[in-house]
Amino acid sequence: MKMGDSDPASYGIGATVAIGFVLWVVFHRWSQRNSKGPKTWPLIGAAIEQMMNYETMHDWLVGYLTQLRTVTVPMPFTTFTYTADPANVEHILKTNFSNYPKGKAYYSYMEVLLGDGIFNADGEVWRTQRKTASFEFASKNLRDFSTKVFREYAVKLSEILYLASQDKQNIDMQELLMRMTLDSIGKVGFGVEIGTLSPDLPENKFASAFDAANIIVTLRFIDPFWKVKRLLRVGSEALLSRSIKIVDSFTYDVIRKRKAEIQRAYEKLGDKDKGREDILSRFIKLEKLYAELVEFEKDAEKKKNSSPCEQSNEETFQARVLRFAGLLDYDSLMKLSYLHACITETLRLYPAVPQDPKGILENDVLPDGTLLKAGGMVTYVPYSMGRMEYIWGEDAPKFKPERWLNDGVFQAASPFKFTAFQAGPRICLGKDSAYLQMKMALAILCRFYTFSLVPGHPVRYRMMTILSMADGLKITVSRR
Questions:
Q1: Contact by Cβ (8 Å): 112, 217
Q2: Are residues 204 and 337 in the same domain?
Q3: Were 213 and a residue from 115, 243, 336, 348 both cysteine, which residue would form a disulfide, CB within 3.0 to 4.6 Å?
């Protein structure tokens, strides 16, 4: 055979393989002609469709789960099963809880951000942390201290809004609420003043780095090459590494400062330092809402034999805010049923954690008959569940606080139906604290301000483990 000649047999083998592969793909696709779930391809599963819809994945899942309640999405190295069926959720989170840990895959994705903390741990590590945290969150001292701190920072936020209303400037409400939360948790959890919620709004490198890290670890769930990028320190994994350094530096600096404070207090007072109550130390239908707040204020002021917070020449706006804030304690906030309903309805439609994946230890069958294989992941989807008519009725997509009230009294729903705080053994320990902070802030803000979305401002989410707005929330604020 001369140089450059090709063996006819090799052509034949190559053609046969190519034709066989094409026929395999065609048959694979043809077999899915009646399938209602995502269309898959050999080897890569539904990766193409999922990647194409990644930026709007929550709504992509709503489309499938509205029809199917549970949908299976094969991927190159695993299989994701998503469900919005309350019976399935109860099975996963309670009935067969031990079969659905966070799992090795989830741990590998999130370890760089969450470490071995309670949100990422399983087994004995999780149980130990859960027991300690349960004791702390049940403490009346912590509850009272949290109420005081949340009131303090809600008033600080009000002061910033007051200045914005004077200057008629646009503000990013999402950023302000994030700063309020960061400072509040810093005070309650670590006993330190972080100081991001001040009128000059100082640069907050921690928040930017944390957001960047959150986005990247979320992408890991569908990026089959993330380990290669991490090894080579390129692309998104290089940015993740830089972001984590900033997050760690900030966090450990806070811890070092607090430990130093504790040591100084111990050296000075021995074990008599009982004054610090933080955790680390001890290890919208707004016009209706406004009416409830005004009525509450009148009743509270009557009991104090003083007049409600009406505008007067003798009292400044800020003084009125402070006087109203002074009426808000844990017990009074718990009595504001419409306020509670507004927050709960918001969380129904916009849960802080829109998806919650679990590992699968052993093969199992969900109540609706869905087969689950060991080694895969199953995810219940709070974002989708809040929009399911078979759970909430035909008005499921509507914001309707009244759905939570019976004769004006708040009525809770099953945690396997309203899943914003998870359910079963891993139900969120910070639920009451979260409600307390939201109520405190919302009561003060809605009593004294009105808000308008900046015309043309885009409202869309970004893909993170927590639900966050991609462009912030740009609004204008006016005093009542």
A1: yes
A2: yes
A3: 243
CA 20, CA 391: separation in Å to the nearest integer? 46
147-181 pLDDT per residue, tens: 999 999 999 999 999 999 998 889 999 999 999 99
Asked if 373 contacts 366 with a C-beta cutoff of 8 angstroms, the reply is no
Domain carrying residue 155: 38-479
17 and 122 in one domain? no
DSSP assignment of 254-315 equals HHHHHHHHHHHHHHHHTT-------TGGG---HHHHHHHHHHHHHHHHHHTTS------SSS
- Counting runs of H as helices and runs of E as strands, what totals does the chain give? 18, 13
CB-based contact 442:342 (threshold 8 Å): yes
* DSSP states along 383-408: HHHTT-HHHH-TTTTS--GGGGEETT
Q: Tell how far CA 289 is from the center of its chain.
A: 24
Q: Is the Cβ–Cβ distance between 370 and 37 less than 8 Å?
A: no
C-alpha closest to that of 444 among 177, 170, 171, 187: 177
Per-residue tokens: 437: 């902070």
Beta bridge partners of 468: 462
Q: What is the mean pLDDT of residues 32-42?
A: 74
Backbone angles phi, psi at 341, to 5 degrees: -65, -40
Do the Cβ atoms of 378 and 360 come closer than 8 Å?
A: yes
Between 317 and 17, name the one with better pLDDT: 317
Q: Considering the chain, what percentage of its residues have pLDDT values greater than 90?
A: 52
Beta-strand pair 405-406/409-410: antiparallel
Same domain, yes or no: 16 and 142: no
Are 14 and 102 contained in the same domain?
no
Residues 439 and 310 in one domain: yes
Contact 362/371 with Cβ under 8 angstroms?
no
What is the rounded average pLDDT for all residues in the chain? 86
Task: Give the residue-averaged pLDDT of 348-359.
Answer: 95
- In sequence order, what are the residues at sequence separation of 6 or more whose Cβ sits closer than 8 angstroms to the Cβ of residue 236? 216, 219, 223, 226, 229
Number of domains making up the chain? 2
The 10s digit of each residue's pLDDT in 85-102 is: 999 999 999 999 999 998
Residue 345 has pLDDT above 50, yes or no: yes
Lookup: tokens for 270: 């021995």
Q: Locate tokens 């008629």: which residue?
A: 168
Prediction pTM value? 0.82
CB-CB contact of 100 with 378 (8 Å): yes
